[in-house]
UniProtKB/TrEMBL annotation:
This is Thyroid hormone receptor-beta. Keywords: DNA-binding, Metal-binding, Nucleus, Receptor, Transcription, Transcription regulation, Zinc, Zinc-finger. One of its GO terms (biological process) is retinoic acid receptor signaling pathway. It comes from the Eukaryota. PROSITE patterns: NR_LBD. Gene3D superfamilies: Retinoid X Receptor. GO terms for cellular component: RNA polymerase II transcription regulator complex. It comes from Salmo salar. It is found in: Nucleus.
Amino acid sequence: PEDIGQAPVINAPEGSKVDIEAFSQFTKIITPAITRVVDFAKKLPMFCELPCEDQIILLKGCCMEIMSLRAAVRYDPESETLTLNGEMAVTRGQLKNGGLGVVSDAIFDLGLSLSSFHLDDSEVALLQTVILLSSDRPGLTSVDRIERCQEEFLLAFEHYINYRKHKVAQFWPKLLMKVTDLRMIGACHASRFLHMKVECPNELFPPLFLEVFED
């Protein structure tokens, strides 16, 4: 579908002040979280066959979106927390004060929305792949090739969804809309990152974090 992976243009409002202590705690898990995204991509033969420059563009573009998805699917409605990188449970306020500001609301809202979908590990992996293979990232040279790869995974994804027989009405189109939500989170985070750079000491930013999110 033409609308899959198209990033909406949004203006991120100013968030609250960054809590430096909370930010430093989050930076401890950001490097392994980014590394997991890279490791996931490297397991896809289609991805590894792309030019190195395109691989870098795709990874930089999808990293926040995939990390947000992984956090969102670990939303606990009872405690109203997300689990980051499989190890740190945080509330909406903690995530907001730790640097993400208004982005945290979007991630928590996504988690609440996805909780009724009951996605299994295969569905999460396929959704990550669809996000990774977004052919509209600026600077890509293998656009047609990436688009074909994404279409193959979308077809496999839809077949798997039909096999699973979810009880949610219009499950497939509703799930695809989450890709747009994640693209919005990624775009909002790009603006928020500039805010963090102003408020937080440079030495608190892990090198890999800067490498991925700085232009």
